[in-house]
Design brief:
Layout lengths: L2 H8 L2 H23 L4 H26 L2 H27 L4 H8 L2 H11 L7 H18 L14 H24 L4 H21 L10 H26 L4 H7 L3 H13 L5 H24 L9
Helix pairs in contact: 2-10, 2-12, 3-9, 3-10, 4-5, 4-8, 4-9, 5-8, 6-8, 6-11, 7-13, 9-10, 11-13
């Protein structure tokens, strides 16, 4: 276990989860902020280039000593996570899928994780987990009801956010199962490797649409910094850290709270209005998360304990 892992284990899991939701939600706001200064794919490209360069001194020793099978597995998971999820959602939005609908599809992650664990790996899902997911989904729909529209994108473009969400769900389940059996990199090492394998993917995607050089403006630099520090180091880093300590059902269900927190971010930064239905939806999602969390405490890790 790395020193970072030991430090994280001293922090109560609910505190880590609260930080995860806060920083994970910042990613959607960061994308909106970035859209005023540069193409989304260009920001993503330089987000991962920046992280690859800045994180290397902190993970070089760990990467050099890691077994080759672990590096290969984590690289594939990284492609599923960053290239699959982010490229699917971002490309769908670029083709005309409304941002609210793309975000709603992305927030179906907890349901997809439980379905994959149940149908593919035959893991038992207690009724309380399904009830919690149903409440979380209902609350999320109430929160997002005014933000969802069909838009005018080509019919096939709507499959891109779905594919991205499923890609992240599959990577989440695979990561937790492989960690339980054969160990893994530290969260920081994972973030570095995921950033490295994402660079050529987003380089190709952006090059097919325009210039790949960074834009020399304060807005572009702020966009890259925002998404790299808050969304990646904060959101993704805490996501992988929480998965090392709890079940994928619990960690992803907590993300049902991401839409209302995103709206609070939008209110604080862009003065978008808040409403009572949003508060009601957040309360319902919170009850759903509580059901999953209580089951997780009572029964331990729902999907990984039997792998040990």
């Amino acid at each position: 276990m790395t020193p970072n892992s030991r430090d994280a284990n001293r922090v109560p899991l609910p505190v880590l989860e609260a930080g995860m939701v806060l920083t994970w939600s910042s990613g959607f706001v960061g994308m909106r902020f970035s859209a005023d200064y540069a193409p989304v794919l260009l920001v993503l490209l330089w987000r991962f280039i920046t992280l690859s360069l800045c994180l290397f001194p902190f993970v070089a020793r760990e990467i050099r000593s890691a077994p080759l099978p672990v590096l290969i597995r984590q690289s594939i998971i990284g492609v599923f996570v960053t290239a699959g999820y982010l490229a699917g959602v971002a490309r769908g939005i670029e083709l005309g899928v409304p941002t609210g609908l793309a975000a709603l599809i992305a927030d179906l992650l907890p349901v997809a994780v439980v379905i994959i664990s149940t149908c593919v790996f035959r893991e038992h899902s207690p009724k309380s987990v399904w009830a919690g997911l149903a409440l979380g989904l209902a609350g999320m729909l109430i929160v997002c009801r005014d933000a969802v529209a069909l838009g005018k994108a080509p019919a096939w473009a709507y499959a891109l956010p779905v594919a991205g969400m499923v890609s992240l769900a599959a990577a989440t389940v695979w990561q937790q199962r492989s960690t339980a059996r054969a160990g893994s990199l530290s969260p920081l090492g994972m973030l570095w490797l995921q950033s490295v394998v994402s660079c050529p993917v987003f380089l190709w995607l952006q090059a097919s649409h325009g210039n790949v050089m960074p834009i020399a403006t304060v807005g572009f630099a702020a966009s890259v910094a925002w998404t790299a520090i808050l969304a990646t180091l904060g959101g993704w880093g805490l996501y992988w850290t929480c998965l090392r300590r709890s079940s994928s059902a619990r960690v992803t269900s907590v993300l049902f709270l991401s839409p209302p927190i995103t709206l609070i971010w939008a209110w604080a930064m862009f003065r978008e209005p808040l409403s009572w239905p949003m508060a009601i939806g957040m309360g319902i999602s919170g009850l759903g998360v509580l059901l999953v969390v209580r089951r997780d405490r009572a029964g331990g890790r729902l999907f990984s304990d039997r792998l040990r």
